[in-house]
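Known limitations

Structure tokens in this collection are predictions and should be treated as such. Users comparing against experimental data should check residue numbering before alignment. To illustrate the layout, the record for LTXXQ motif family protein is reproduced below. The input appears on top and the generated tokens appear beneath it.
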Amino acid sequence: MNTLHKKLLIALTALTLGSAGAVWAQGAASAPGTGPGSGPGAAGHAQHGDPAKWAEKMKERMAKHQADLHDKLKITAAQEPAWKTFIEAMNPGTMPARPDRKEMEKLTTPDRMEKGLEKMKEHLARMQTRLTALKTFYAVLTPEQQKIFDERHRRMASHMRDRMDKRMGEHGPDMHKGGERPAMPEKK
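Generated tokens:
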């Protein structure tokens, strides 16, 4: 992965993860058994205990974060509609369901890759919606508010990168730090 691509991926991931907690919380709260902590890959959420409790906690944390940001920015009555649109775009609904592993195994490699590309396009469309709402909201902020917003986002992104570094350290080599992925040994 080249450096520009990595930076873009990290920035998009940080922005997405900033709203992912609330999205997961909404999905798990509205449909028990279908949110994080259920289905394939649920073991990754075992550390959080009961998925419904974890989702509720994430929802509360996201609401607290949003209220804190609203207060720090000192949102005016004129800015409130753009704020609400921004918040709604960052909380778009439930997370898409993971594809069924057994069904995916039945597909050919090109078909699996095509399914993956479809998911990426859906994700890109959601990101575009969020970016549009972000730009609209950002445009109504004063320069001082923009400065506060930028600093808060920088800290959040840095925190998310640190958490990703820690997880990668626990689960494998840290590939987004320090350059390219190590070359695979040649087969003889």
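For this record: Residues 3-171 form one domain. Confidence is low (pLDDT under 50) at residues 14-46. Please report discrepancies through the issue tracker.
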